[in-house]
Structure formats: structure tokens, C-alpha cells
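Hi R.,

Here are the chain sequences for the assembly we discussed:
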Amino acid sequence: SQTIHQWPATLVQPVGSPLSLECTVEGTSNPNLYWYRQAAGRGLQLLFYSVGIGQISSEVPQNLSASRPQDRQFILSSKKLLLSDSGFYLCAWSTSGGRGETQYFGPGTRLLVL
Amino acid sequence: AQSVTQLDSHVSVSEGTPVLLRCNYSSSYSPSLFWYVQHPNKGLQLLLKYTSAATLVKGINGFEAEFKKSETSFHLTKPSAHMSDAAEYFCVVSGNSGYALNFGKGTSLLVTP
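And here is the predicted structure of the full complex:
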């Protein structure tokens, strides 16, 4: 069966510091991978998605970037965190199909920028 | 553009009574629709998915949803609430692009003893 991992689970960082969040998927090959942010009271916002190694699409211009160095690894990064980057970050995967594929979510990373 | 509107931000029910969480959608084509549940500080878990095979979709934990095209609705129901059902519920529609999912703002379900 497929499993998705995220770490760290919780992170407290000062403004201006760098960020690296990692997501890995087990039990599947060539998944589509996604990064979402969930801010309080604002639902989920898709940040990035990837359909293959090195292929990243950005949905929202922002202070963050994503990379996919391996087939089942997805990394979310920032060079300098802003207060507005605080939130709950969720990674998800789906099979490499078309519109409407089910996305399966990881446990999330709670980020607090102070 | 595809979107969903969850009509209630909070719903409170007593344990053992029925649950109804309402969702209306807007889509320019035949959509895929989902309900996800999120317990506090946890990731999202898929409850059920509609893909046009059947209008009444059965999901996990006794939940089901009915797709009504004439009403553009996809309401989530459960005959008898359990304390463990207390969580945030999201109605979701597949987006314009091949990959985006459009989430509603969520409905917080409170179950009282």
C-alpha cells in the first residue's frame, strides 16, 4: 500500500531564516506530487505540483519554491521566511492520470514563523 | 471556473442523530467531487468520491453523499453521528487544470453527548 511521509511535524522559525520541508511517498511510482498550504480559516491553497522529476509548476507567486530531486521526493523551500508563511503545509500525491484524480494527503507540517 | 460552496461553517449535532453537511458546486463540465475529513492537526482523509458512475456514493465510516445535478449539490450525510466524527469536513471539486482541486472553506462538525 502507499504511504506518504512529511517532516518535520512541527517547526518554529524566525523571520528571515531558510526553510526546507520534505515529503516522500512509498509504494507507488511516478506519482504526481502537490504542496498545499492551509492558513487559519482560509481553506487549502495549492502552491506547487509536479508531474515528474525536475518538473515543477507554481500555482501562486510567493516566497516559496519547490523541487523534486527524486521520483518520490518533493521538497518545499524558502530562502527567507516571512510572517505570512506561517500555516499548515500539506503534501499530497495522486496517480499520474488526468483531471479529477484522487489526491492522498500526508500528515502535514505545522510552521510558525516568529 | 470550478468552485464549491459549503453552506455551513459550523454544524452541531447530538450523538446518535443524523448528520447533514451541505455543499453546492459550480462547474463548466462534468466534475469529480470529493469529501475529505480532517481531524485536528492531522492531514486530510478521503471520505468518498463521485465520478459519474452512480449518483449516490458510499464512503468510509458510514458516510454517503448524493450528487444532484439539477440542484448542483453534493451534500454529505450520515444516519447516526458518533463522537469520533467531530472534525473539519471539506467539499472539493476537480479544477480546470488536470491537477488542481478546488476546496471549500470547510465545515466544522461538533458532536455533543
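Residues 24 and 85 of chain B are 22 Å apart (CA to CA). The radius of gyration of chain B is 13 Å.

Let me know if anything looks off.

Best,
T.
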